[in-house]
Amino acid sequence: MALEEVREAIFRRGFVIRDKNRPTKTPKKGTHKPPLKKERLSVSIGVALSQKGKTPQEIIKEADSALYKAKESGRNCLICS
Question: Which residues span the domain enclosing 10?
Answer without folding.
Answer: 1-17+45-81
